[in-house]
Each structure stands twice: as structure tokens, then as C-alpha cells.
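Repro case for the chain-ordering regression, as requested:
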Amino acid sequence: MPRANLNLDKPTPLELENLRWIIITSENADEVFKKLEEQGIDPVLWGLTDKDFELLAKNFAQIRNQLKITNDLLDKYKKYYETDVNDTNTKK
Amino acid sequence: MFGSLKIAMVAILITGIAGAGMYVMKLRSDNAILKANQLKLESAVADQKTLIENQKKDFEDILDANNKMNELVSVLKKDLDDLDKRFNKKNRDVGKLAIAKTESIERITNGASALATRCIEIASGSPLTEKEKNATKKSEINSECPSIANPNYVPY
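-- result from build under test --
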């Protein structure tokens, strides 16, 4: 007798917040902090060098790729072992 | 004596007829068994054919899944290579560019960041919008991950 399908729901897709990058140079630093204060934002920033920013972008791209591969792999397993799986990758 | 011979002949005849009758009945019985065996064999052959067909389909599905996964890995790698090129194309120095054109680079960075954020949502299983699905021009695509965000875009 075949085993019952596992039929776990897929994880809910992420809905991420957009964040704002601020570029500070030695020339515009005073102006940037002044603007932050005017907007009621604490005049403090977490900084990255241009090289580290590049690495961060690449790290995120790699995480994204791995997420996509894992997600597609899960779909393929479900499709193969649970034949009544519907394609949900479409939104109006 | 003639009477005894007659009786013996009749007895032989009756025995012969009875033997023939039993032989025919045995043949019928054997025939029924053979027919039943034939049915079982035909059923077994049909089961085997179905099994082989199912195995063939399974094999095709496995091959197809493998090919699609390999294609996906390949296009994702291309997206990653493109990102690297955007940072380093023709010895480009993003740091120096940011010093020279701070506002422009900030705007470009925020635009790209929003697109990259959307890429992660898509990779996590978020459905594509109609706009993303219908994008075919460079100006319409998500340049951070066209391979997963814009299925109808063909690079040109």
C-alpha cells in the first residue's frame, strides 16, 4: 500500500521592506548628517566601503540563487511524488 | 462359448466407451486449466507492460527535472556574473564614481537595491506580476535577476 502524500504547504513567499542607501563622502558628510537631523532621524549611519558594498551585493545574490534553487527543487519533488500539485507561480 | 465371447466384447466396448468418456472429461479439465493459465499470463504481461511504461515515464520525468535544474543553475550563475561585471566593467571603480557623482550613484544604488529585494521575494516563491511576465525590453526588466523575474525576456 503506497504511503499517504506528505502535502505540507509551501512556505509563504517573503515580502521584504525596501531600505534606503545613503552615500557619504568626505565632502557631503556634514550635509548628510544635517539632513538626517532635519528629518528627525538619529544622525548615525552604519558604513560600508565600496568594496564591502560590492561583497554584500554579491552575497545577497548568492543567497537569492540558493533560495531559488532550493525552492525549485522542492517543487520538482512535490510534482514527482505528489502528482496533483498545481503550479502557483502566477499572480494577476 | 459364442455367448461368452459376445459378453466379453460388450464389456470391452463398454469399458472403451467409459475410458473415452473419462479421457474427454480430463481433456476438458486440462483445457480449462490451460485457459485459466493463459488468462493469468496475459494479465501478467499487461501488468509488466504498464510497469515498463510507468518506469519509462518516470525516467523521462527525472531527466527533464535534472535538465531544468541544470538550466536554472546556469542562468543564475549568469546573473551573478552580470552583477560582477556591473561593478568591475572596464576597470570601473564604483567608489571613485560615487565620489564624483554622489547623487546619481545613490539613486542608482537605491533603484538596484529595490530590484534586488524583489528578486529575493521571487526566489522565495512570490508569484510574478503580469508586468514582470510580459517584460521583453531592457527598460522593462528587473536587471538584477532577469532570468527568474522576466521569463519572456531574451537578452539582446
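Ordering looks correct now. Chain B touches chain A through 45 residues (CB under 8 Å).
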